[in-house]
Amino acid sequence: MTRSATPDAGRAGRLRWRIDIRGVVQGVGFRPFVHREAVAYHLTGKVVNTGQGVVIEAQGDEGALSRFVAALRSKAPAAAVLQDVTISPLPLVAETAFAIGRSEATGSPSAGIPADLALCPECLAELFDPGNRRFRYPFINCTNCGPRYTITRAIPYDRPQTSMAPFSMCNDCRAEYEDPADRRFHAQPNACPSCGPHLWLADAAGQRLAEREAAVAAAAERLQAGAILALKGIGGFHLAVDAANHEAVQRLRQRKGREEKPLAVMVRDPARARQLCRLTAAEEALLDSAAAPIVLAPKQPGHGLSPAVAPKSDRFGVMLAYAPLHHLLLAEGPAVLVMTSGNPSEEPICIDNQEALQRLAGIADFFLCHDRDILSRADDSVLWHLAGETRTIRRARGHVPRPILLAADGPAVLGVGGELKNTICCLKGDQAWVSQHLGDLKSLEGFAFFRETVAHLGRIYEVTPELVAHDLHPAYLSTRWAREQDGVPRLGVQHHHAHLAACLGENRHAGPAIGVILDGTGYGTDGTIWGGEVLIGDCREFRRFAHLAPMPLPGGDAAVAEPWRAGVGYLHAAYGGAVPELPFLQGHDVGALVAQLARRINCPETSSCGRLFDAVAAIAGGRPVIRYEAQAAIEFMQAGARLAGPAFPFELDPEHDTLVVAVAPLVRAVAEAVRGGATVAEVSARFHLTLVELFLEVVRRAAAATGLGTVALSGGVLQNHLLFVGLAERLQAAGFTVLTHGELPANDGCIAFGQAVVGRAWLMSRPKPW
Ligand code: ZN
Ligand code: ZN
Ligand code: FE
């Protein structure tokens, strides 16, 4: 969104304007760009970086000033984001030139550090130009491209605060760095082969096999031969293999302990990507953006990659080369590389050379290392295009630490997130910094990454929170960490309320709204596990208007990993203890499970929408055991691929002041359809339609009860695009305003932000002691 205020111009003639710009305007080549445009429009004045963004003073003809401001918006560097442009008149001064001023270190540092940027076209051309002094130099960059957040220790974003500090620029580099007309003016990571970082290739024992540019050729050769290469990139190490080499891809899966979860691939350019995936113009633009994320897009027939890259998935996660090193490897080695995070499954990505040698021992055959340190680890971001908008699945490199603009100012609050897909979030002023994806906190490394990021964000943004907001789940490590923070107030925030508040906050909507939160697991205010919730509330409080009926989950987490167990639990409840004969039960010890259910031993009840998906998918004949999170639901959705009737029956039972969605009739109808010979595809299409109709009906009743016309959609289950698009479209057609996530993921990656938003609302509404 862009806000703008243009002062009354008065009479035509010469004017001086002060133009305040907020957004991502530092470290992205913005000041040299402003300088060029100002000169082109014959303006005098200056441009200065401040703690909040950029301030321009420009003087000239009124028409030229207007065109200048229009050009600032329309021609800004690719990585710049203009969030807020305010113009105010100044008295004319006597001057003859337009200058780039020194940075002003005033006020609070909210301009922060830019996100990492993919190699720009100019640097790419130089990289492959034999006549250029940076020919084949893997650390080429300029003000329009290169690492930023991942090499920065503290602000202001200046070379001594980055891991480029140990490299002192040669005369040629310094001349570029100091010349406002040069593309490398104040490019903090500026370097060349004679003064900058270098590569080397090592074997698994750490023995150096090749140095500098020869290391690239040697690594490319080994990739061609099917080796697994660990390579140090921008946000951490990747594990790479030739994506067309089936044996090599399988070996990588086996060594990494990653059985079926799709692996991302990297290619040189959009043309190559189009050979792998069917891409819309919007998807291609996303792929080619300065953030260079992994984009999920439908597979192209005849793609030529190993079937082990993304088995049973109808999509590939594809990204373009974003570091110079990637371009070199793809030019000299295989044309498509599997590029997966350099970590043992589900642990944080490795960033240090020694750490990689140790933690990736037994996985990688060779290590391509370099001596520019990574100071903040950041995985590749994962995005896709859905229902006309870009949606985020994992927000990390290229997107952090770009702030999320809030509707208003308020006290500083820290949200520490959930437990899986964790992020943390600091609110300060009218901005929120959501950390990169931190992942699963349950491993030692994961929890260390969490603590390191809390410290890092606090240091960078000088945030001293007035409140720490956390999940209600007492066993989450993030909750436990929060409870150990003495001397600062703490607030427990219900998981699905955090989802609702995150969606409201991201849309700068104050609420109240009807929140349809379809999720896997979240600790409820009653101590049970919630997850299929319709809440009514705002950022301060909520009430549980409706929820899916609680169903038993025999074995708890065991049933999450083995959806057939969820199927038995739901059938047991739906049929009053008599589990009917169904094909999916064959080969499983159903008797033992039924006995467990009858005696209610370790059978927690849950209103989770994710578990309902697992149970129905299993009953319909879907996958009995999963190899990665939500696999059963994903494959079930792919099998259906559309919404089709007739919907299964459901019932809404008022219980006190809450509406309970009876799941039993739905489960029985699914079981009957399967006994009648319905295929997985048929059951899936009907089940998705059922959920759309069901939640539409619940929302109608919530609207009738409250008069509200705004619906917020959040929760990991809404990453199911069939359900998400179907529900959003039907709600819109019914006249509702639908709020959805875009910048933040609908999954638990948004929880920290939601907690912080709730925490701030709580602080601001708290009765004052006076
Ligand atoms: Zn560049
Ligand atoms: Zn140099
Ligand atoms: Fe959640």
The beta-strand count equals 32
Number of DSSP helices?
22
Estimate percent helicity. 25-40%
Class of secondary structure makeup: alpha/beta
Low-confidence runs of at least 5 consecutive residues: 1-11
β-strand percent reads: 15-25%
Instruction: Report, as a whole number of angstroms, the end-to-end distance.
Output: 39 Å
Return Rg in Å. 27 Å
Biggest sheet strand line-up: 8-7-15-9-10-14-11-13-12-16-17
- Ligands and ions found: zinc ion, fe (iii) ion
**Major sheet summary line:** 11 strands, mixed
- Mean pLDDT over the residues: 93
What attributes does this structure have?
single chain; 770 residues; alpha/beta; 7-stranded mixed beta sheet; 22 helices; disordered N terminus; binds zinc ion; binds fe (iii) ion
Folded structure, characterized:
The chain has 770 residues and is of the alpha/beta class. An 11-stranded mixed beta sheet has the order 8-7-15-9-10-14-11-13-12-16-17, with helices on both faces. Helix 5 packs across helix 9 (324-332). The model is unreliable at 1-11 (pLDDT under 50). It binds zinc ion (2 copies) and fe (iii) ion. The site of one zinc ion has 7 residues, from helix 3. Fe (iii) ion is lined by residues 495, 499, 519, 522, 715-716, 748.
